[in-house]
Design goal:
Elements (H helix, E strand, L loop, with lengths): L10 E6 L4 H16 L8 E6 L5 H15 L10 H5 L2 E5 L8 H7 L5 E6 L6 H10 L7 E5 L7 H12 L7 E3 L7 H12 L12 E9 L8 H7 L1 H18 L8 H14 L8 E7 L21 E6 L11 E6 L6 E8 L17 E7 L3 E9 L8 E7 L3 H4 L9 H11 L8 H21 L4 E4 L6 H8 L11
Parallel strand pairs: 1-2, 1-4, 2-3, 4-5, 5-6, 7-10, 8-15
Antiparallel strand pairs: 7-11, 8-9, 9-10, 11-12, 12-13, 13-14
Helix pairs in contact: 1-2, 1-12, 6-13, 9-10, 9-13, 10-13
The structure holds nicotinamide-adenine-dinucleotide (NAD).
The site of nicotinamide-adenine-dinucleotide has 22 residues, from helix 1.
Length: about 475
């Protein structure tokens, strides 16, 4: 099934850092795909702006190469390429100086939506915001898009918010968390709030616990220097896993509108208890066969940065008191697999006797590598031989029902960029949410940093340190297998 496409208004999108890795791998291919889908009109323009000395023709060839490499459907879309490139241009520009800004101001067309994608390090956000203002490009039609990391801690996140707020209102600032752009994450909200079936059970009376896993099989690769200054808690837990936890735990918003949703998410973060040190496990991967040791991939040979973190979180409110949330994320794990599992309690009494075993319903929201929602239900094992129970997954993605080849949905970056143009902030983090998440994460990190704590080594290709398994075992529970 081809998703229904509603074209957006004409726009100019300036990609600051338009020659960088993120632009090449994600932003430019995403724009091209929306162009091919007919969502981005023929008059929408993409303007790359970066330091590299390049002319329009050079940039078009850069964009064309990026599409060939990172749009999986590039061959199918090749007839659209020339018309897309016709509206791509480039300005050589220095975020920290005045070079290029007059030209950019003359290029951007008045009277249409202007989106400025800050695909540069956060150290340049203030410079860009200020120059957009100075050169007359920060008006009511403009939006800025900022990438992670949004701050390194609470103080730096506050500084960033303050710097951006000097020239842009909150409703013009789009803080990207690409996990929120995933089809399934939105489907989670549809399942929760569009059905009567789940919400009455969605609380500590019926939910035993919730597990959120974001496992990567790759190591830090070429991002070692950045990663070593961040670690798994800052790079993944404070933002991506926290956002997923919010969507699972929040109260039903009155409307599906940006502030209503974000108000509810903020309440969840504020209701989180501080994490006790014995409820957190941090690890660092070791060499295994051809896979190198973490410490050989970063600049600091005795680095104490964690490449894995697992923790148990509690939300102190009426809905969730007593239901633990177990969160884990790490690199060089067994598989690339991300999922949320809502594990319901067992039925209070089994009428089928001890041999039938104990069964639980589990709602699994799979995010990576393939997206989907499954509800594990218990049925009778078909055939003769008495009453034997069997757990089977009920596929709630209904891909077959939606079309023979499965749905053709935009990926997270495609959806989020179009939301920026439409002016819909529902799937973007608000400044106060980001600050509240740092307020929760900072004390955990401080304990490690002040105590000089060394992460526990774990074998590459494993499920992380054994202590992380113990985090659940000691509560009589088990992590789900990390499996793509
Ligand atoms: P990169 O180093 O590959 O690219 C940086 C870009 O910024 C280049 O185009 C460079 O020319 C430009 N630039 C640097 N200094 C400049 C200046 N003074 N004036 C004008 N342009 C300047 O970085 P990246 O990997 O593309 O990351 C960009 C941002 O996105 C960073 O904040 C990063 O943390 C974030 N991010 C990246 C990824 C990723 O997968 N690459 C993922 C998530 C978030």
């Amino acid at each position: 099934m081809v998703s229904r496409v509603i074209p957006v208004d004409p726009f100019d999108l300036v990609v600051f850092g338009g020659t960088g890795d993120l632009a090449r791998r994600k932003i430019l291919p995403a724009l091209f795909r929306r162009f091919c889908a007919g969502q981005m009109g023929a008059n929408a323009r993409v303007i790359g702006a970066a330091r590299a000395d390049m002319d329009d023709a050079g940039y078009r060839s850069f964009v064309s190469d990026a599409i060939a490499e990172f749009d999986p459907d590039a061959a199918r879309h090749k007839d659209h390429l020339d018309s897309f490139l016709a509206n791509v241009s480039y300005v050589v520009l220095d975020a920290k100086g005045d070079a290029g800004w007059d030209k950019l101001a003359a290029t951007v067309q008045k009277g249409r939506v202007h989106a400025y994608y800050f695909s540069v390090g956060p150290g340049l956000f203030g410079d860009l915001a200020q120059r957009l203002h100075t050169y007359g490009m920060a008006d009511a039609n403009s939006r800025i898009v900022v990438e992670k990391p949004f701050g390194h801690d609470l103080a730096s996140a506050r500084d960033l918010n303050r710097v951006l707020a000097q020239h842009f209102d909150e409703h013009q600032v789009y803080r990207i968390d690409h996990y929120l752009g995933k089809e399934t994450v939105q489907n989670l909200m549809a399942v929760r709030f569009g059905n009567m079936l789940f919400e009455p059970l969605w609380n500590s009376q019926y939910v035993d616990h919730i597990q959120i896993t974001v496992a990567e099989s790759v190591g830090v690769g070429g991002r070692g220097d950045y990663y070593d200054r961040a670690g798994a808690m800052r790079d993944m837990m404070q933002n991506h896993l926290m956002q997923l936890l919010c969507l699972i735990a929040m109260e039903p918003p009155a409307k599906f509108d940006p502030d209503a949703v974000r108000d509810e998410k903020l309440k969840v973060i504020r209701a989180l208890d501080p994490v006790a040190p014995d409820n957190v496990v941090r690890g660092q991967y070791e060499a295994d066969g051809d896979a190198p040791d973490y410490r050989t991939q970063v600049e600091t040979p005795d680095s104490r940065t964690e490449s894995f973190v697992a923790l148990k979180a509690h939300i102190s409110n009426w809905r969730w008191a007593g239901t633990p949330f177990y969160l884990r994320t790490g690199k060089r794990l067994k598989d690339r697999a991300s999922e949320i599992a809502v594990v319901f309690k067992e039925a209070p009494h089994s009428i089928f006797g001890a041999e039938a075993g104990r069964h639980r319903n589990i709602l699994t929201i799979k995010l990576q590598p393939n997206e989907g929602i499954e509800l594990g239900v218990t049925i009778k094992e078909p055939g003769p031989g008495g009453m034997r129970l069997l757990d089977v997954p009920l596929d709630m993605t209904f891909a077959e029902a939606l079309g023979e080849d499965g749905p053709d949905f935009p990926d997270a970056y495609e959806r989020l960029i179009m939301d920026v143009i439409r002016g819909n902030q529902t799937l973007f983090m608000r400044g106060d949410e980001v600050e509240a998440a740092w307020q929760w994460a900072d004390p955990v990190i401080q304990v490690w940093e002040e105590g000089g704590e060394t992460p526990i080594p774990y074998a590459s290709g494993s499920a992380g340190p054994d202590d992380a398994l113990m985090l659940m075992h000691r509560d009589g529970r088990r992590w789900r297998e990390i499996k793509a």
